[in-house]
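Posting for a labmate who doesn't have an account.
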Amino acid sequence: MLKFLLVFILLSLLSLLLMSLWHRPTRLRPPEQRLIQPCPNTPNCVSSLAEVETHRVEALPILDNADSSWRRLRSVIEAEGGDLVVDDGHYLHAVFESRWLRFRDDLEAVLETDRIDLRSASRAGRSDFEVNRNRVERIRRRYLRED
């Protein structure tokens, strides 16, 4: 029975890993449809547009001007280990990969006239132990202090 349980756990972890590696995010859309989507009803997503407090994070302010703020955010995301997939100057999509199991999380940013909206979500699983929230908060701290 113990052997069966161990095999089941290993296969479950392997399937989560494969889903994370192979699943292409459905949020990669044509330029005219690049908007931040609502978080699902799972705790592994945060967004500055979320109405539910458990998913809510603050948007980033525009600092000097929109262009320099966008460049600063891009620089911070790359410094945090994000792999930029799309950056058209108004919409940014980056992928972060966990160190051990190589789970992938998607971070999106949309430049508005007075702020930069953010969304960060896990591709697989239900809970992320607040990894996405902590990542967004680290990005916020670096963004606000970086010169």
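Reply:
Got it, the structure tokens are right above this. DSSP finds three helices and six strands in the chain.
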